[in-house]
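Bug: token stream looks shifted between consecutive jobs. Job 1:
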Amino acid sequence: LLIHYTIVRNSFKLSSCLCHASRRRNLDRLVKMLTRYTCPAALVVCLTLLPLSAAFQAAATHKPFIKTHLKSSWDNFSYDDDDELLDYGVDTDFKAADENDDPVVKAMAGMALDAPEVYWDGEPIDVPVGSQLELSEENVQGVLAACRQEIGTMFGYQAENRGVGITGGVDFVDLDGPTVVLHLKGRFWHQRPTVLQRVGAYLMGRIPEIVDVIVEDDYELTDEANDAAILD
């Protein structure tokens, strides 16, 4: 009896992965086989237990099993508490808001500064982590555009962030085989190596052929480069 039930359940599991026409043919063959080779008592018990199977429900509703991909969350990121960053390279006409100010106040202050320029006008490619995108310049640019939005607290693309002195941005430079070359610019509250690490993890989590994400010049990862960034 257990063997009969296993055959029926697995057949429905297979059917749930097929298109509608293939599913119907598969089920017709299953019914004929059971009618010919299965004793009536075993058939009744199998068909009684079958509706409890998730495989049967998937086949009956035409909904195949779907593996859910979890999207990375950056909700725990916050600004580094280092007011000294605002003491260097800041335009004297710029009046920075306090990080505890209302978002509207910070956004109003940030309107005095230009957002980092983006040298790509394509659409962001917003896909979940675990995706298998092909390695190409277009895909890297698209995923990088989505990265700027998802971990936006690190960058100065939003007026609210610029209002507290964050003007940092990231640009695509080149694709050197499986290595992505980026450029960091502007001022960050996070350490620049941390910014590169987060961006690299975002890209590699969606384009698995990438083996490394680096900057064009190692100087870009130094505190000196961050302090030298001038808010225009």
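Job 2, same session, no restart:
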Amino acid sequence: RRIGIPTWAGALILIVWAGILITTVTFVGLARREGREVNVYFELFEVMFRTGSLVFGGEQVVLPMLQAEVVPSWMNKDQFLQGFGLAQLMPGSFLNFSSYLGGVHRGVAGGLLAYLGMFAPGVILTFGMVPLWARLRHAKWFKSSLNGVNAAAIGFLGAACVILWVGAVVTAADAMVFLIAGTLAGVYDISASFVILAGGIFGAVLHADTLNLGQVEWCTLVKGGDL
């Protein structure tokens, strides 16, 4: 009521969101099963819209889902992790990462379409849920559902940490940079931009082409061996 959207309009907005999601997912899924070629831009939008519809509990929860979707079909793991670091360095939402993914895959048009697909669900769901929130927040089943969603989001955050650790921390130098960055952020509360900048500087200093320090595997498990 406060934002001028009646309950029926909120429900209609949610139906529009569900319609877009179901239509795109169904079309792409059927095309793949039948062996038909899917328009790359339509598929790109479907991936981002579907992923953006599942952003609960924080933006980083989409990282495992995005990696599963785009690596190695759109890019390799190194490009994915480099884009993640770049997105963390840039101001604004982490979901700007979607523009990077779309841009690497299909140029400027792909970047813009990926950005639209990732952000559209959040905007649609916000305007759809606000008129219904006053009623839903008192429903016991809704509160229980939110508890389950929060638990799942924490699980995705854990998965994101594992993915980043395995993919980015390979040598002892990487582990040292990790510890330095973690200390700056967790103990001294330094902003993410400065932490990433510091990580880049330390990484360059320790690199094999500079001081060549710590350029050995920190753990044989990284290569699938035994401790």
